[in-house]
Specification:
711 residues; alpha+beta; Herpes Virus-1; Immunoglobulin-like; 7-stranded antiparallel beta sheet; 6-stranded antiparallel beta sheet; 31% helix; flat
Length: 711
């Protein structure tokens, strides 16, 4: 017989951390309380309406939505995105059990089944937990009597007298099904949530859920493999029974494992204490060596100080004697008073030598000792580096190195590393990272991720920030030294996702899109060659424009892309939605010179006219160069306006401040920024001429991690 108290953790809702109340089965097969599902969805809707997450949890204190889910709400609600085409919006639900976004479909919460089996088990657990608390009759006059039975058809509990009154003999109610006192009332027939008047009589093996015959005939399960409910019941019950019987048959083996684990717990405690003691002894030895070195250094400094002070004091006394009526000068003055020549010569000869030395010392004064102790500065740079790498014995475990070329920052961070050795000597790796902050740099807390591969994806990093990363390998209980820290920078704003628009203004004769609409290539083919036959000197060639399929109404956004090295001319930037028509009708005909604006002199007015008539904000790229536009406040020297083209270029649009910036997306360095009119919906814009190609930077996913592992 199953002990109800032993299965308590299986009966706890992952959202509210309490016993399940009317649990619903999610498509991912996890269970969540009906009330919790509603509160989480309401929290999402409130967050979208308020544009933030500050008030999203105030109305539902029993629900704790994960920080990653709330961060996703904030980014979406602040984005203000609008699509060109209407797309049916599906209800996404962040499952608190597996932390994944689950698509509930068009019916949302109404399309979920209620888990009556789990509900019954929870009720049995509650009854076992409150055995001393009786369930009272719902129909007795105060004071109510203790109930003796519950009617499943009436969903109520009765004492013996009230049950006879409300279920008189010979009536339809007398045929109602009754059980012992309970508060868990479940329907006799399970109805289909899609077709509320139909009972479920089949089981979809693809979706792993009960369905009705209408779901199979014309619903979303039309092409799925289904079986009868009785067959599914028999099959699943046999499988579950066999699995349970197998586990029960291994009861002795499980107990042996538990005994072994208890022993391992004790051994771990004992060995850890021994390891702590050994580590303490090792550091005490180091501390003893350092104390001896410290004492020797202090003694040497003290001895040198005493010697220097003695020399300087003697020199000071000698110079003190050079003063009038004092010391050597006073003595010489007294000798000069001697009148006997023989006595004077006898004394003055030696005195004259001393006077000459004093005179020379005055001409070239030099202290008898140095006051600085530069020779006594302790050089601990190498020792500090060695101590910084102080760790447990690695037994030859290679130190991993973070590969900065394969690592990249975009909507998430993809960190990849490799070992210098040919073989992968580590079983697992631990990647640590923390945000660089000048104020908290010394007290920064490293966040840790355990990885079985040699790359990992990190999400929920702050925008416009720098992060330090390091990694080390583990083989059993042995670890390698930490790798060198690598600093990477996140984009200055949330990543904006879009595809190239193949409808609005797209010229399929000149431009070629890939199937996923993430790459566009300019084909300098026959139209340009045919047009060049009548091209005159000074005529403009055409630019082929293409925009993103998603617009921006508010907020700050960032996107990145690659320009092929062979590209002759590419322009990138943003365009307002109310000027798109002007953009695509502003191209110049290569066969007609009537648009030539050359005034016949080099006044520069042509460039000013051309720039002032543009209905968009673009910068020019090409021939592996980035050209900073000419501005009144910008550099006048043409050479200073030409920069090497980054391998990945980024655009940051701030609609609230009316500014657009162009970045080196590798190091997130701002190359150029200017003001832009954001009164309308803004779209990413690109223009290509000649042979050129642009590839949008794609979002980082778990597949990137697997790809780098394969490499």
């Amino acid at each position: 017989k199953v002990t109800i108290k032993g299965i308590e953790r299986e009966l706890i809702c992952p959202a509210c951390k309490e016993l399940f109340t009317h649990p619903l089965i999610l498509p991912c097969q996890h269970n969540v309380c009906h009330k919790c599902v509603k509160e989480i969805l309401f929290a999402f809707e409130d967050s979208f309406a308020d544009g933030g997450s500050e008030s999203s949890n105030q109305s539902s204190p029993r629900i704790k939505i994960s920080s990653s889910s709330m961060d996703r709400i904030d980014r979406i609600s602040r984005s203000g995105r609008k699509r060109n085409s209407l797309t049916p919006r599906s209800t996404l639900f962040p499952c608190p059990g597996c932390q994944r976004d689950i698509d509930l479909g068009e019916r949302g919460i109404n399309g979920l089944f209620r888990n009556f089996t789990l509900e019954t088990i929870v009720e049995r657990y509650r009854q076992a937990a409150r055995a001393a608390i009786a369930i009272m009759c719902d129909f007795c006059k105060p004071p109510p009597q203790e109930s003796t039975k519950s009617c499943m058809d009436c969903s109520a509990s009765y004492c013996n007298e009230c049950f006879k009154i409300h279920h008189p003999w010979g009536t339809v109610k007398a045929q109602h099904e009754y059980v012992g006192p309970t508060t868990n009332f479940r329907p006799k027939i399970l109805m289909c949530p899609e077709h509320e008047m139909e009972r479920v009589n089949m089981y979809c093996e693809i979706c792993r859920r009960p369905v009705c015959h209408l779901c199979k005939l014309g619903g979303c399960h039309a092409n799925h493999r289904v079986t009868t409910m009785s067959t599914a019941y028999k099959t699943l019950k046999e499988k579950l029974s066999k699995d349970i019987e197998y586990l029960i048959s291994k009861d002795s083996q499980v107990k042996a494992h538990i005994t072994q684990l208890d022993l391992l717990l004790k051994q771990t405690e004992c060995n850890s204490e021994r390891a702590k003691e050994e580590a303490s002894q090792s550091f005490e030895k180091l501390s003893h060596v350092l104390e001896e070195k410290k004492s020797a250094a202090l003694r040497a400094i003290e001895a040198s100080k005493n010697l220097r002070l003695e020399k300087l004091k003697m020199q000071a006394e000698e110079y003190q004697g050079l003063l009038e009526n004092n010391g050597l000068v006073g003595y010489a003055q007294e000798v000069l008073k001697e009148t006997d020549p023989s006595c004077f010569v006898q004394t003055a000869k030696q005195l004259h030598v001393r006077i000459q030395k004093a005179t020379e010392s005055l001409k070239s004064f030099r202290p008898a000792a140095e006051t600085t102790f530069e020779d006594f500065v302790v050089d601990i740079a190498k020792q500090e580096e060695i101590l910084g790498h102080l760790s447990f014995l690695s037994n030859g475990l290679d130190i991993p190195e973070i590969n900065e070329e394969q690592s990249r920052m975009y909507d998430k961070a993809l960190i990849s590393w490799e070992c210098p050795g040919k073989t992968d000597s580590a079983d697992i790796y631990v990647l640590e990272y923390h945000k660089l902050d000048r104020e908290e740099e010394e007290s920064a807390t490293w966040q840790e991720i355990e990885v079985c591969s040699k790359s990992t994806v990190i999400s929920d990093l702050d925008d416009d920030s720098s992060y330090a990363f390091r990694v080390r390998g583990y083989k059993g209980s042995i670890c390698s030294l930490w790798s060198q820290q690598v600093i990477l920078h996140t984009p200055p704003a949330p990543v904006f996702r879009f595809l190239f628009d193949d409808k609005c203004g797209y010229n399929s004769e000149h431009l070629l899109l890939n199937a996923r609409r993430t790459s566009v290539e300019s084909r300098a083919g026959f139209p340009l060659l045919l047009g060049s036959e009548r091209m005159q000197l000074g005529c403009y060639t055409t630019l082929d424009y293409i925009i993103g399929d998603t617009g921006i109404a508010k907020g700050k956004h960032f996107w990145a892309f690659h320009v092929e090295a062979y590209s002759y001319l590419v322009k990138v930037g943003v365009v307002s939605g109310n000027k798109i028509q002007k953009l695509f009708h502003n191209t110049r005909d290569v066969t007609s010179p009537r648009y030539e604006q050359d005034s016949g002199h080099d006044s520069g007015s042509e460039d000013a006219f051309f720039d002032s008539t543009q209905p968009f904000t673009l910068v020019t790229l090409g021939m592996k160069k980035f050209f900073i536009p000419t501005t009144p406040d910008g550099p006048k020297d043409p050479a200073s306006r030409i920069l090497p083209l980054p391998s990945c270029l980024g655009v940051c649009l701030d609609c609230d401040k009316g500014k657009v910036g162009f970045y080196d997306a590798g190091c997130m360095k701002n190359l150029y920024e200017c003001e832009v009119d954001c009164s309308g919906i803004m779209y990413p814009a690109f223009a290509l001429m000649g042979s050129a190609a642009v590839h949008l930077e794609e979002a980082i996913t778990a597949e990137d991690e697997e790809y780098h592992d394969d490499i």
